[in-house]
Amino acid sequence: MQIGIIGLGDMGKLYAVSFVNAGHQVCGADMPSRFEELKKELEPKHIEVLIDGHEVARKSDFIIYCVEAEKIDEVVATFARSTKFGAIVSGQTSVKHPEIAAFEKHLPEDTQIVTCHSLHGPAFSPEGQTLVVVRHRATNEVYQKALNIYKSLKSNIIEMDDYKEHDRIVADTQAVTHMGFESMGSAWKNAGFFPWDNPAYAGGIDNVKILTTLRIFSYKSHIYAGLAILNPYAQKQVKYYAQAESELYKLMICENETEFRQKIYAARDFVFHESRNLLLLDDNIMKEFSLSDANHKQKPNSHLSLLSMVYAWYKMGVNPYDNLICQTPPFKLRLGIAEYLFKNEAMLEESIHTALYDKSIRGDDLEFHTAVHEWASIIGYGDLKGYKEHFEAAKAFFANRLNDGRDLSGEMIKRLGK
């Protein structure tokens, strides 16, 4: 079966190479201006580079659109009329609502649609990573063919029949998770300090926060913008997160300990119920992965970002452990460090006391509170341009450590996953 990839960016190239290595014939195309560059790069790897998507669509039995979510309608509209009769069509966007809308609007009726979503970035081989496969419009026979093609990548395949369910879960595992880490990055930027130089961020779970934040900012802004703004479930969940954070912050500055504890304990008992299959991250490993050159004496931290996430899950009635079927490394790490905090009685008590009474951390919490609502407003208004600009501002602040952060976080993910 001939596989064709329309869009040879980082993910498109990764999958082209991966399918060739799995024994498939692969062709692909990107912008005509990149034709010579891609031909030189990919043809030695046995990938046929064509001039445009029309040529790919005409000759391919299995077509994958690897383009940004915000551009999917335009690209599918351009090449849909050249789709080979009876072809299977897929997309690699992280949010499926606009993708399925484009497929239904533009593709011929004889087209079979079995789409997918790789829950990893281009730095990772698909082998062993999670791959969601969504059957949207396909006969049993065709679906099995498509599934066999995906299985050749040796990914951990999660099958779904409803793209809406995919987007609902991904709103939590990716959009809100990314927004939480992006808020930390913006807060540190606005405060004008690097967290690894601050004793309040010298603990194991702080290392995870810092490295995951740097990992996110090391990638391209459009990856996260589409996830947050084009997913209809994401805006609702981001709003819940911002409201949860605001409720807790108001109680903190009023030093209303009774109500604050009531909310935190209710969230703890719901999210980390004894029936949960806990992740149990190793604190000794987390402590190894510090970017600091100094041996700081650790100061207490309110961990407002984690308190807010757990309280938001409680308010939404979301069991994050159910969403691990669509886990990404940042989501698993965020759930893991939240679990570590809430299941460690002494640490949770220190966090609560610090949040309510330690004025030395209150300025940092104010910066985080402000950043959360900046990001929530941008996402709520559907402002793709503003999202990218806000992202790039924080990315520029951390520019000198982004590569270190990505490399170190990759090693940390491997160690904690063992």
Automatic annotation (TrEMBL):
Record-linked Gene3D superfamilies: 6-phosphogluconate dehydrogenase C-terminal like domain, NAD(P)-binding Rossmann-like Domain
Domain of life: Bacteria
Keyword match Nucleus: no
Keyword entries, A-Z: Oxidoreductase
InterPro entries assigned: 6-PGluconate_DH-like_C_sf (IPR008927), NAD(P)-bd_dom_sf (IPR036291), P5C_Rdtase_cat_N (IPR028939), Preph/Arog_dehydrog (IPR050812), Prephen_DH (IPR003099)
Segments forming domain Prephenate/arogenate dehydrogenase: 1-282
GO molecular function, one term: NAD+ binding
Biological process per Gene Ontology, one example term: tyrosine biosynthetic process
UniProt-listed SUPFAM superfamilies: 6-phosphogluconate dehydrogenase C-terminal domain-like, NAD(P)-binding Rossmann-fold domains
Name recorded for this polypeptide: Prephenate dehydrogenase/arogenate dehydrogenase family protein
Organism: Pedobacter yonginense
